[in-house]
C-alpha cells in the first residue's frame, strides 16, 4: 500500500503525489504504475514520492477525488515483457466503480459481495477474474446483479481490501478477455 501525500488542482485535472516507499526503486519519469487498479504515468519524482496527473476522464471513472491526503491505496508496478505472469489478465484501466453489498467473515477469511453497472456484471463469471482496487481476484459466484470473492488472510493484511465494509466503494476492472468476447458478441447482434 502507498500513501497520498499531496494533491493539487491543475485545470480540469489534478496532480496526486504518492509516497511509494520501496516500490519507487528503479521508477523513472514516464513509467506506468497501477494505483488502486488505475494505470497512471509518473510525471515527477522526489525520492520515493511520485506525482501523477489525472485528467477529467480518469477523475470521472474513479474514486481519486474522494481520497484524502494520508489515505492509502494499493500499488503495483507494471508487468514487463518477459516477466512471469502470476495473476489474471487485467490492464489497469478501471471499468467502473462498484459497491460492497455484503461482507461475511469466516474466521480469518472473508467473503465480499459487490455490485456494479449491469454492462460490467455481464463480464463476471464464476471462477473468472476481476480486479478490485487493483487486486486481481478469482470470482466465487456471479450473476447479472452481483459477484463475490473469497479473501485469504494474507490479502486482507497486505491490501486495502481488509478495511472494506458494507457500502465501501471500489474500482472494478473485468478480465480483458471477457471484454473482447463481449465486444465480438455485441458486434454480431
Report on this structure.
This protein has 189 residues and is of the alpha+beta class. It has 2 domains: 76 residues, Elongation Factor Tu (Ef-tu), domain 3; 93 residues, Elongation Factor Tu (Ef-tu), domain 3 (Beta Barrel). The protein has a 7-stranded antiparallel sheet. A hairpin with a 2-residue loop joins strand 3 and strand 4. The mean pLDDT is 93.
Q: Characteristics of this structure?
A:
six-stranded antiparallel beta barrel, seven-stranded antiparallel β-sheet, alpha+beta, Elongation Factor Tu (Ef-tu), domain 3, 189 residues, single chain
Topology:
Layout lengths: L1 E9 L2 E7 L12 E4 L2 E9 L2 E6 L1 H6 L10 E2 L1 E3 L18 E11 L2 E7 L2 H4 L7 E4 L2 E8 L3 E6 L1 H6 L10 E6 L1 H13 L1
Antiparallel strand pairs: 1-2, 1-6, 2-5, 3-4, 3-7, 4-5, 8-9, 8-13, 9-12, 10-11, 10-13, 11-12
**Beta-strand segment tally:** 13
Instruction: Indicate the CATH architecture of the largest domain.
Output: Beta Barrel
- Can you list the strand order of the major beta sheet? 6-1-2-5-4-3-7
- Kindly provide the radius of gyration, computed on alpha-carbon positions and rounded to a whole number of angstroms: 17 Å
Number of discrete helical segments: 4
Give the structural class: alpha+beta
Q: Describe the biggest sheet?
A: 7 strands, antiparallel
Amino acid at each position: 500500500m502507498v500513501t497520498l501525500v499531496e494533491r493539487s488542482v491543475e485545470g480540469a485535472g489534478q496532480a496526486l503525489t504518492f509516497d511509494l516507499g520501496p516500490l519507487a526503486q528503479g521508477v523513472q519519469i514516464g513509467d506506468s504504475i497501477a494505483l488502486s487498479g488505475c494505470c497512471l504515468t509518473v510525471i515527477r519524482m522526489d525520492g520515493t514520492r511520485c506525482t501523477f496527473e489525472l485528467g477529467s476522464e480518469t477523475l470521472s471513472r474513479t474514486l481519486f477525488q474522494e481520497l484524502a491526503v494520508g489515505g492509502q491505496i494499493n500499488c503495483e508496478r507494471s508487468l514487463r515483457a518477459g516477466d512471469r505472469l502470476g495473476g489474471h489478465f487485467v490492464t489497469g484501466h478501471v471499468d467502473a466503480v462498484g459497491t460492497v453489498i455484503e461482507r461475511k467473515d469466516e474466521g480469518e477469511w472473508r467473503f465480499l459481495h459487490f455490485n456494479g453497472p449491469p454492462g460490467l456484471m455481464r463480464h463476471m463469471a464464476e471462477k473468472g477474474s476481476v480486479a478490485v482496487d487493483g487486486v486481481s481476484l478469482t470470482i466465487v459466484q456471479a450473476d447479472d446483479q452481483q459477484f463475490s470473492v473469497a479473501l485469504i488472510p494474507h490479502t486482507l493484511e497486505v491490501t486495502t481490501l481488509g478495511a472494506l465494509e458494507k457500502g465501501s466503494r471500489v474500482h472494478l476492472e473485468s478480465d480483458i478477455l471477457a471484454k473482447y468476447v463481449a465486444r465480438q458478441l455485441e458486434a454480431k447482434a
